[in-house]
Amino acid sequence: MNKNTKALWQSPWGYSESFLLSFGFLFIGFALEYTSGTSSFGAIVFPYNLIFGGIYILQIVLVYFFIRNTATFKFLSGIPASIGAIVALSVLVVIMGVTSQVPMQEKGFVNNFGLNRITSSIPFLLINFYLLFILAMVVIRRLFPLKWSNWGFICSHLGLWITVFAAGIGSGDLQRLRMDLIENRIEGRAYDAKGNYFELPLAIKLNDFKIEEFRPKLAVVDNTTGTLYEASKPSLIMIEDGLRCKLHDWKIELEEFYVTSGRAGDRYYPIVDLGAAPAAKVKLVTPAKDTITGWISCGSFNRPHESLKIDDRFSLLMTVPEPKRFSSEVSIFTPDGRKQEQTLEVNKSFTVNGWKIYQLSYDEKMGIYSSKSIVEMVKDPWQVYVYIGVFMMMIGAVYMFWRGNKVKNEETINVVSD
Amino acid sequence: MIWSHFLLAAGISTGTWVLAVFLPKRVLIRNILVLAGIASIAIFIAYLWFSLERPPLRTLGETRLWYAFFLPIIGFLTYWRWRYNWMLYYSLGLSLLFLFINYLHPENFSKTLMPALQSPWFVPHVVVYIFAYAFLAASSLVAVRGLYQEYKSDLQPKVMLMADNLVYLGFAFLTLGLLFGALWAKEAWGHYWTWDPKETWAFITWLGYLVYIHRRFHMPAKFKSSLWILALAFVILLICWFGVNYLPSAQFSVHTYSQQP
């Protein structure tokens, strides 16, 4: 690097001033966080966020009008200022990345400076506003005068600005509620993370909750510790019809398998009943050529599980099957008297009256016999603006891929020959 | 079954690539050997996809496999474009390293795929990321070489141009991966960004390369600081990729790829 011959704060400003500014904001932010205690700001809601956003944009426009011909504008819309702001934000995000972000009761260093709730801390807020301000200056500089060749640049930078601005301003209006649906019952209330109930402008009746599971797996556990034995891999083998396999040193043959079954006497029979569990008859051959035959079952909420003892140290067992797919057949009633039949599934949501309904979970203890379905209801009026920003950034990324390197190649090549 | 096929595929790749390194005089034969090794991994991935009945993109071992597949392709393309033999050999070496790690840590090739991952976004999200990581890993190799040349006072500007190219391509993929992930999360969980530890580190990685690009654009004539930024950015990328699972912040992550018991 060149020797820094110019005094600090003497025009033109560069990296030193940029880092002093952005880390100054960080410092002020942490100082404010410390003095204001743990009573962090809450997110602002409509219409205050709209007013606040409008004032912020107006402020940007005014600042631009007053300083557009000064060296300060050149600095604020330049790369050193951007890098300073990005690095200051990175510092906060790194803190977020190494500490666990969970609320704590006790007072202490971490809590006083808001390090366990960075995203709602004052330094994070300040840096974001500073970054958005710098980014706005950068975009404005490229917008006036508008040149066609800048479209890729404007897509990526303005897209980022819109995304962060809309997501930040709109976060107070985002509502995420849960609703517990019980088969054949109509539910019109949902609750938030704190357990407060809300009346919704819609009601849902769960007609049927459907769940499919994968086949259970075979595994060997240590009798004394109860832990999975993993001497060789794979240590879990999924049951399939006619399975013959080698699990560690034991040869295993599947003789019978029923997805739903019940025990009667010395064996399991296929039955259809509430709580009927998977069971299998297996033949196991030890390295010493001893043959052990017996039934195993993973059990269910009302039936015991059963494992097969191999020797004093080990047992063979069947794992509880994992869900493959679950969905809710529902009728959705709205105040206008309409009734819509829908299927809600993971990754397949449905929108009604501004609420997006997601299949979230079910009564996992009951497994395939669950008659309860848990859905999440999300209202996010700012989503469309965030998406506009996201799609602009995507176009920017594709442009970047197409155009490739934009660094001035001649300058790069010339420098070494100097 | 799957395991023995893996050994066969990895063995073929290792064999062809070792031969390729020791037959540098016949460029055509060398190139054919390199491509044969790549094809062997490709066939194994296709077989795995087929026999698992799901895209093999879920576990760390499976992503390593894709990495071992894409890295030599990118190395080969870079060699084709810039005529750097060392880039090809480096990428082959790295790819073999990943195959070797998979050999040391065989996984349960499990068919199960949790419902949250059964989405049309799953494949593009992960594939785009793997591409990004491979480009960025290649760029960090270039950075290390540049720093070595710098140390020997023999820095070639061509090295910088190559680093820039790789970073631009990698960064474009990285951005798309991040945004695909956000769109998918909105569809599946109701919110695009929840500061899950993996997301947090992916964002830090993104910021790291953002700094590099801006620094290069601003000061194309200053190499050393840019090279250090590039090397550091890759360290962050590695934390994001492997390290996250071991951080205290990761206990509630949806991205930890852990096997279910």
UniProtKB/TrEMBL annotation, chain A:
Keywords of the record: Cytochrome c-type biogenesis, Membrane, Transmembrane, Transmembrane helix
Gene Ontology biological-process entries: cytochrome complex assembly
Domain of life of the source: Bacteria
Membrane topology value: Multi-pass membrane protein
Location of the ResB-like domain: 322-364
InterPro entries named in the record: Cyt_c_bgen_Ccs1/CcsB/ResB, ResB-like_domain
An example Gene Ontology CC term for this record: membrane
Family annotation (Pfam families): ResB
Transmembrane segments: 12-32, 44-67, 79-98, 118-139, 151-170, 382-402
Subcellular locations according to the entry: Membrane
Protein name, per record: ResB-like domain-containing protein
UniProt source species: Labilibaculum filiforme
TrEMBL record, chain B:
Keyword Membrane: yes
Gene Ontology biological process terms in this record: cytochrome complex assembly
Domain Cytochrome c assembly protein, first and last residues per copy: 86-247
Protein's UniProt keywords contain Transmembrane: yes
Pfam hit, one: Cytochrom_C_asm
Primary localization: membrane
Protein name: Cytochrome C assembly protein
Transmembrane segments: 6-23, 32-52, 64-80, 87-106, 126-144, 165-185, 200-215, 227-247
Highest taxon, organism lineage: Bacteria
Bilayer topology term: Multi-pass membrane protein
Subcellular locations according to the entry: Membrane
Keywords: Cytochrome c-type biogenesis, Membrane, Transmembrane, Transmembrane helix
GO molecular function: heme binding
Cellular component, GO annotation: plasma membrane
